[in-house]
Specification:
L-amino peptidase D-ALA esterase/amidase, 11 helices, alpha+beta, 6-stranded mixed beta sheet, homodimer, Ubiquitin-like (UB roll)
Chain lengths: 411, 411
Amino acid sequence: MADRSPLAPERFPDLPPIVGVRLASTACGIRYKERRDLMVALLDPGTAIAGVFTKSKTRGAPVDWCRNALKRGKVRAIVVNSGNSNTFTGRAGAQVVERTVAKMAALLKCEKRDIYISSTGVIGEPPAAEKIVGALPAVVRAATADASAWRAAAEAILTTDTFAKGATRTASIDGVRVTINGFCKGSGMIAPDMATMLAYLFTDAALPAALLQELLTAANERSFNSITVDGDTSTSDTVLFCATGHARHKRVTSARDPRLKAFRRALDALMIDLAQQIVRDGEGAQKFVTIRVARAASAKAARAVGLAIGNSPLVKTALAAGDANWGRIVMAVGKAGEKADRDKLAIRIGGTLIAEKGGPVPGYDEAPVAEHMKGGEIEIEVDLGIGRGAATVWSCDLTHGYIDINGGYRS
Amino acid sequence: MADRSPLAPERFPDLPPIVGVRLASTACGIRYKERRDLMVALLDPGTAIAGVFTKSKTRGAPVDWCRNALKRGKVRAIVVNSGNSNTFTGRAGAQVVERTVAKMAALLKCEKRDIYISSTGVIGEPPAAEKIVGALPAVVRAATADASAWRAAAEAILTTDTFAKGATRTASIDGVRVTINGFCKGSGMIAPDMATMLAYLFTDAALPAALLQELLTAANERSFNSITVDGDTSTSDTVLFCATGHARHKRVTSARDPRLKAFRRALDALMIDLAQQIVRDGEGAQKFVTIRVARAASAKAARAVGLAIGNSPLVKTALAAGDANWGRIVMAVGKAGEKADRDKLAIRIGGTLIAEKGGPVPGYDEAPVAEHMKGGEIEIEVDLGIGRGAATVWSCDLTHGYIDINGGYRS
């Protein structure tokens, strides 16, 4: 594994057990040597599941499987391998999925469509099904609810990430305390080959699949869909959210139920925490950038403008150099394709107002902005001045490290 | 000026005179020292003009002026300064445009809206109008139809380009020979600050403004709108096309007139030649990439897929490394947002079929592809297998040079 990102959090958080969730991981030798590359999460019968997936038209075989299985909304196991994405692998790739799922269903004596699968790593080479299938019986036997299993699971799904990413939150539903744990991987598209953003969330709350899906989709927009490292979209992006239902709160059937307010807030916070960790492990990233867009035509427009800034190679290279080049932010706003008015736009960096009303502010002093740009945490604020939509987007700088990582040969 | 791009053509072509076009350039000290930074093209009375401009919502004051002037469709002069883009300069910037245009109109005794203006360079600082205005009388006096003036004009509009870009073609309209000359600048967004793609085209053909606009808009899609260096869109992009009407061919009023076939073809070829020169001067570019997309749902969809490939940082870093990483091309096709079917997609690099029917071809031998990737001219072919739309897009690789150029401070 490469050097830990300079933007990484100090340590992996302590994730408490969640009743109904057991985890295990092992090294089955798909691609990496002496490194865990297979993770299994086992869920008690009755666990509901929701998911969101890549919008790519060239998505991998595991994504096809999950999208189809999700119609049922039940889950007994999630199987994730790293090192091979099983994408663009044709019929052979679909067979790997089928064999894995069949084996797991046989071990758990459940339906095949209660098994979910994700793969991340090299593209275009079908993974060796026998390595995955062969490892499953021992992994299932080893599955545990111990707290230590979370970190091991988070490590087993990594590819070229430089640190394991986890988060936990609690909330109360109608007076009953519930927990949400999550872990994820991804640092843009990861060298030495295209990789992926994967995230797995678990709660003991008792929420039906349709409601879970509604909560996940909404929170996903404000978290994983609001980050960017390089603007490239993986063929395998997957977020799964499992609710075991062991918490004994009263039945809730609507996502808008006020009793879910704290849960929604905790889910948002957890997913934003995980999403930010992905940016903090962005390939070659040296600076973590928060882009707040206010007074856009809509929240969607605000996010599009934020992503245009966060994805712009010119903005990202200026950030890398610590250059307060706000003209490039103006450019990125202009190219976003959303409603904007040059003469109503205001731009702040590190809290300092730089430009408004179509030009730089009189007597603009670059010194405090230049000082802010030297740090590892950059704040950009853009006020479009035309509506009520707001969004926050997180990104990182574009450095020589990105090119070194992604320009390397695959083997 | 930086070292000449390794992808540059051997020399600037010989551009013949065009009756009714006179050119001059000078160094007026806007930003650069001892370097021509002001270009003027003078056109005979009766010259028609067409134009296409950046779609940016934060476009510069000169673009606002040109878009408005274009309603009249007549031109007597084009004034271009390099070193300052006069963008996001508020009221002061608009005044610079007004003063320049008023001075030029007084010198030529014409209407102000017959004067066109472009600016390229630093953003957010109004240029010194007196330097531009003060230089105009002498420049107008010096204007000449000599062949040597073309190269000098092409040099005067450069910012951090590493070579001057020009092209010429001839065609026959109804048996009468006409000439088209053009020159342009731009290498993506150019350091040390955001810059611009500018192009100026001139012909002695006698074509009304509306027809000229139709021809320009169509050819622009297949040329300047089919190239990418970094996917960032300038606030100042401008292409102007002037027709002096001195050629004595019969009147043509429809762009679809078969007598215009050769002219359309020559215009296409000239604009593609110029557009390719811009890519060949892409910031840090070491490889010139041609991306041919076939059998897409439409020509527009094909171009969008081609641009998704050409803009992908992962594809571009793989190209820089000479890595035949075709999985990243699959990824870029998938994220383009256009209709695509993983299992109908075929990918070739340097003519070698790599993948089709959802997976790599049996016995795929990477050796010839790896050999092709070592060269400076890369060919990527993508067959979507779903429709009849085709497009060709030109791009370049993403190298450490790009980051060095764009990560540098502005001063």
